[in-house]
Write a structure and sequence with these properties.
By secondary structure, the chain is an all-alpha fold. The chain is built from 10 helices and 2 strands; from the N terminus they run ββαααααααααα.
Amino acid sequence: MKTIIYSFILLAFINCNGQNKNDIVGKDGKVYHNDKTEMIIRDYDNTNTLIIEAIELRKSNKPLEAIDKFNLAEKEYGQKLSIYLNRGVCYDQINKREEAIVDYTKCLEMKSDYYVALQNRGLAYMNIGENDRASEDLNKAIKINTSEPSGYLNLAIFYHSISKFDECCANAKKSVELGFIEKYHNEMPQRIIDEVCK
């Protein structure tokens, strides 16, 4: 069995350029429409310019500048899921996992069943070796939304990271069955199946 490291993370960002509030931006920067479930929450409008500017900086791959802008937005607008989720993603981008976990946890304190925050926090926990917490978050997210294929792919990546290859393969296959490849235009679960599940 081949051991390969995978790093797909479906990070959902809240966008402000006319996209549907259910759209998801993958790690590749492409926007994917999510019409099966409401995964991201848009809790700002065009008057929240600091949030819009911060998201644009994040999308322009300027996470440090975006973090500064999200900090200003938090002072100006108070607690918002959009600030905590997106700032957490920025911290993830610069490998500050503990800070990312703090922001994802703030999201979950505001909305305990927030699928995207659970996924992102679970993956951040995985990246710092907190495997019990990672497993708990990733499995809870799947219970919240059993039809979302990205959850199964992220769980497959987690199981791969702890050398549980049977569980890795089962979740990668479930991700394919649920249409991950078509939905996100990404072959990662099939590559896992081809390379790990022989």
